[in-house]
Amino acid sequence: MLRINNITTENLGEGCITDNPRPRFSFKLNSDKAETTLKSASVSVNEWTTETTQQISVRYAGEDLEPFTAYTVKVEAFDNHGEKAHAETTFQTGKLGQEWKAKWISDPTYTFKEKKNSPRPLTFRKKITVEKEVRKAWIASTAVGIYDLYWNDKKIGADYFMPGFTDYKHQLQYQVYDVTDQLADSGCLEAVVAGGWAVGAFTYKRKNRIYADKQAFLAEVHIVYEDGSTDVIGTDETWDVTTDGRYRMAEFYNGEVYDASLDRSTMNWKKASLEDSGLRPRLLAHYGAPVRANERLSPISCTLTPSGSLLYDFGQNFAGVVDAVIKGTKGQVITFRHAEILQEGELYTSLLRSAKAEAVYTCSEGEQTYSPRMTYMGFRYVEVIGIEVSDIQLTALVLHSDMEKNGDFQCSDPRLNQLQSNIVWGAKSNFMDIPTDCPQRDERMGWTGDIAVFSNTACYNFNMSCFLDKWLMDVKSEQRRGGAIPETIPHIPMFGKLESMFPVAIAYWGDSCILVPWAEYMARGDIEVLRNMYPVMKKYLKACKFWAEFLSVGKQRRIWKVSFHYGDWCAPEGEYKDWIKRGKWTATACLMNSSKIVSQVAEILNLEDERDYYQKLSEETATAYLDVFTDRMGKLHEEFQTAYVLPIYYDIFQGNEKKAAVDNLVKLVRENNYSIGTGFPGTPYILFTLADNGYAEDAYKMLLNEACPSWLYEVKAGATTIWERWDGIEEDGRAKEGDMISFNHYASGAVGDFLYRRVVGIEPLEAGYKRFQVKPLIGGELFWASGEVDTPYGLIFVNWELEDQKFRIDLIVPVGTTCELALPDHSLKTIGSGRYSFQVEISDND
Ligand code: BGC
Questions:
Q1: Which SS3 state, helix, strand or coil, does residue 519 take?
Q2: What's the 471 CA to ligand 1 centre distance in angstroms?
């Protein structure tokens, strides 16, 4: 039987809200018959119907949609066996650009000028009287700052840190919450607005008031009564505001100070005033993946530190908040301190730099609960001061952008399973509304280089569509006139006006505008992401080319060295200046690869001239790399792992030169006893360059190496996430000294791509896995590996086992896709959808 499952609107599920006037619909098919493909489908909304053979991104092209209206999407599909299926979903529109009746409001008397700190959270309130029976009610709201809504003191919605972090100069999301049940009776609507990213201290320089001088709030309560009449209650000067709320302080770095002993009735409320923050963003219904707490962790131990405080170990490094059930007395102060690691049994917090990462809670009387809402920490350990162990029950909530888990990897080596777990936790901890670098210290910024190198792995583990589409919208709006992509998005200029006026293109960090959409396109198959980002890619490459040619002649015109690159960032050898010195190699290889990808994008978009132009640019850059950096016989004048890995992986080296270059890399790797020598750019690819060029066992040796620096060194040292520095904890168990030591940085977890693409062997050959390869890489004494990827067409599942030269593979191929299966005895099969098992004998020569 054919079945349609999981119809999405704008990549969102049933009941979602969108402000896209032309939403995209996608759907998956399921069948118990093998070799099933979609023959045709019709997708309809009201009077509009379209016939299609596509399952991904069918765009609505009917009458204009009405604001705040629910629509039903109907899909009817026919397969190649003549079977038919039908399914429906719903979506709702948001304001669709309709004017807001509400006005931005703030506290007229509150001025906040302090440097490096965060403003007092503001609390707004409005008493709402309901006199007629309510059929439906909803709130559309947003803030400059981050906000939470309460109805009669009870939180509305499950989201954290709304309205999310966007380039507030250009776009600001608003949220829509259904409050039909709440508004059955009169009551009080409250909003707490903390400084968040817009006004609070943010960036390692602890800048504040980045987007506005103080918080502001905007909300409309829409009510439809049973008698058909309607009401809209918008924020205006009739709302009250106070700085005297229970949230005394809240910011991402220092944490939160909350006073539950305060009596709400005696708070000093005053009338709000209209506020003009100077920002003029487009207000768009929430389109990103909201931060939520979908997981709760219980401590694995509760002990005392040598200095006598209560210490909870959650057994896992992660980003989130504590959640405490407390028996307290009014005025009792409890402090929660957080850290990723211990040294001599005590919290080790100096790595957090200026971030205090504390939650300070003042109790009311009796049994109560507390969990911070306006901050988060990156931690495994929590020290609790000011309460007896018998009076507190402590668990923790894991916070991250709510993305569906999309993949899984397991194998017979438990160390690799721990590595996979570390990669996933590293990703979860750093997908906090934007892709951040780390969740603990005074940084947590949208560093573009980190996601540029990690995006393939991210797309295997999660459905990244909403999260990345949102972030890429900011990448687009933050692109500088000259084409440069700032190194953090949303961008906060760190070095004054000059940086804004004269930003430069930086290899890999800037190439996020190409590498991230390309990874997303290959994983999800939606051409829209390419269409959307193609102009950005072009403009960016123009900037790269300009900088490569700047004051250069001859071959040097394709060697990209100015003005600044992060180079082989975080390579195990050396420090910043050494990594940066490697910039000309990494940048030139990167320019070659990005031009090649953009040429492919141009081809997909049917832009032949442009395809040829970028192809030529990429070829010229490849030639320059070889002419300038090598002896043209496959040997680099200056050798280091990354300088071989990039040109080998990107096919800059060809033929005999490539063969020699691979041998030279292998020599370096062996001389280094299989320890990793790469920084951000080379780490994702080094194992591919070995495994794909005849050195599979060397690749496995490097993957399974436990000596420092290596992935499994971290695992052996007890890591539960991915570290920023390969030697974050030295062999003697002490934390490395320095100001850039994070134990939760996902970038070098980019090796996850290799686990899926080679160890299990699942790799898309056509975007969205329409056609994909399964080609397991036997080695490393692994005797089984299994993996799954939930593609836009459905679930791919692979499990292989090896016993006494007998290789057995079980796999599931989703409806509508084709699998090219390459078995270790070199046999090849092309198979359509269905469940399969194959067994082959392999000889020692295979
Ligand atoms: C961040 C990195 C980032 C880098 C770029 C660091 O402080 O943590 O992950 O990409 O800066 O300079």
A1: helix
A2: 18
Q: Which residue has the tokens 């791919």?
A: 796
Determine whether 801 is an active site residue: no
Q: Are 486 and 476 in contact (CB under 8 A)?
A: no
pLDDT at 433 over 70: yes
Distance from the CA of 600 to the center of ligand 1, in angstroms?
30
Which secondary structure element, helix H or strand E, spans residue 415, and what is its range? helix 414-430
Ligand 1 centroid–CA 119 distance in Å is 26
> H-helix or E-strand containing 271?
strand 270-271
Of all protein residues, the one whose alpha carbon is nearest to atom 12 of ligand 1 is 566
According to DSSP, the residues that pair with 256 across neighbouring strands are 250, 359
- For the stretch 767-779, pLDDT in tens is 999 999 999 999 9
Cα–Cα distance measured from residue 719 to residue 495, given in angstroms and rounded to the nearest whole number: 35
Query: Using CA positions, which residue lies closest to atom 8 of ligand 1?
Result: 437
Measure Cα distances from 141 to 219, 521, 762, 838 in Å. Answer: 4, 32, 43, 55
Expressed in angstroms and rounded, the spacing between residue 167 Cα and the centre of ligand 1 is 20
Containing H/E element for 657? helix 655-671
203: left (phi over 0), alpha (psi -120 to 50) or beta: left
Q: Which residues pair with 397 in a beta bridge?
A: 296, 321
Residue carrying structure tokens 């409001």: 105
Distance CA 69, CA 760 (A): 45
CA 487 to ligand 1: nearest atom: 5
SS3 content of the chain, % helix, strand, coil (to 5): 25, 35, 40
Ligand 1 centroid to Cα of residue 677, in Å, is 18
**26 closest CA partner among 48, 45, 7, 53:** 7
- Which tokens is 441 given? 């210290």
CA distance 440 to 434: 15
Q: Cβ distance 283 to 142 under 8 Å?
A: yes
Phi, psi of 814, rounded to the nearest 5 degrees = -70, 155
Q: Which residues pair with 401 in a beta bridge?
A: 291
* Catalytic residue (one of 256, 443, 487, 520): 443
What would the pLDDT profile of 330-345 be if each residue is shown by its tens digit?
999 999 999 999 999 9
Catalytic residue, chosen from 358, 478, 724, 763, is: 724
For residue 747, the CA-to-ligand 1 centroid distance in Å is 10
Can you tell me the distance from the alpha carbon of 386 to that of 359, in angstroms, rounded to the nearest whole number? 12
SS (H, E, C) 139-207: EEEEEECEEEEEECCEEECCCECECCCCCCCCEEEEEEEECCCHHHCCEEEEEEEECHHHHCCECCCCE
At 500 the pLDDT is: 66
Active site residue 724: yes
The three-state secondary structure class of 521 is helix
Pocket test for ligand 1, best of 354, 447, 516 (most atoms within 8 A of CB): 447
Backbone angles phi, psi at 540, to 5 degrees: -65, -45
β-pair partners for 328: 366
Q: Output the pLDDT for position 128.
A: 97
Among protein residues, the one with the nearest Cα to ligand 1's atom 1 is 437
Backbone φ, ψ for residue 682 (5° rounding): -90, -25
Which amino acids bring their CB within 6 angstroms of ligand 1? 437-438, 443, 447, 449-450, 566, 740, 745
Give, using CA atoms, the residue closest to atom 2 of ligand 1: 437
* Alpha carbon nearest to ligand 1 atom 4, residue: 447
User: Residue 286 has what DSSP assignment?
Assistant: -
Q: Are 517 and 472 in contact (CB under 8 A)?
A: yes
Element (DSSP H or E) covering residue 644:
helix 641-649
Q: What is the pLDDT of residues 746-766, one digit of tens each?
A: 999 999 999 999 999 999 999
396: Cβ contacts below 8 Å, ≥ 6 apart? 296, 297, 299, 314, 318, 320, 321, 322, 323, 382
